[in-house]
Write a structure and sequence with these properties.
By secondary structure, the protein is of the alpha/beta class. The chain is built from 11 helices and 9 strands. It is elongated and about 60 Å long.
């Protein structure tokens, strides 16, 4: 399908949808200067995720894991790109009911999106696993790394979901609420390989909904009604223009 016709069709689907929900992954943030964790130069190419990305590893040697985490919290300085901004306009206009994101970078919120389910947590907060005290990111920024709890001196853990952790109950509940009755899923920047988020497109499709995919490397070609093998910002901007946003 020619790009112009695909944009027109996708815009028509978005206008006619009763409830559109978005699912986003690392690919929507690469244009904001955040490398995809799984890319050649990404975090997992330099830090074995099973050695640095599990709760078990953190509990065994938190100082070692913070060699990786000190790079991770740097993404808090990133700014949203045009795609994030367009998606926020979709929500403002009522076209998009909410976003389920696998990202921990808070860029959707920075762009102005309000209904955002952080499926894998975020770096906005940290927790002491010993005494339960919570800290905000700006507090951690003022601490020497690795940050230590001011109450019990234990090393703080960011409120992100490690590989051997369960998805937070609240995130699962919020996801259920968003997906209930969704007839269109806008999938952007995710390879749909990480369970259980990877099951969301199939669930919408099997429930009779349609899928629009935006991925430089398509992951849902056999499932999506429309697939854009293109950048996030350029495609979202084109859709916004087609919708007169």
């Amino acid at each position: 399908m020619e790009r112009e016709k695909a944009i027109e069709k996708a815009a028509r689907m978005l206008r006619q949808s009763r409830k559109t929900v978005a699912l986003t992954g690392a690919g929507v943030s690469t244009e904001s200067g955040i490398p995809d964790f799984r890319s050649a130069g990404g975090l997992w190419a330099r830090f074995d995720p099973m050695e640095y990305g599990t709760l078990g590893a953190f509990e065994e040697d938190p100082r070692k894991v913070w060699n990786m985490l000190r790079e991770l919290i740097g993404i808090a300085d990133a700014e949203p790109n045009a795609g994030h901004m367009a998606m926020a306009e979709f929500e403002k206009s009522g076209i998009l009911k909410g976003i389920i994101t696998q990202n921990i970078d808070m860029l959707h919120q920075k762009a102005g999106s309000h209904t955002v389910v952080e499926f894998h947590g975020s770096i906005r907060a940290f927790t002491c696993l010993e005494c339960g005290r919570k800290y905000e990111l700006d507090e951690v920024h003022r601490m020497a790394l690795p940050p230590e709890c001011e109450t019990c001196s234990a090393i703080l853990k960011p409120d992100v979901v490690f590989f051997d952790e369960q998805i937070p109950v609240l995130a699962l509940q919020q996801t259920e609420d968003l997906l209930r009755g969704a007839d269109l899923l806008l999938v952007a920047g995710t390879s749909c390989q990480v369970v259980p988020a990877s099951m969301i497109p199939g669930r919408v499709r099997h429930g009779g909904g349609s899928i629009i995919e935006i991925n430089k490397e398509l992951a849902l070609s056999g499932m999506a009604e429309i697939s854009f093998a293109a950048g996030f910002s350029e495609t979202m901007t084109a859709l916004a223009e087609a919708l007169s946003l």
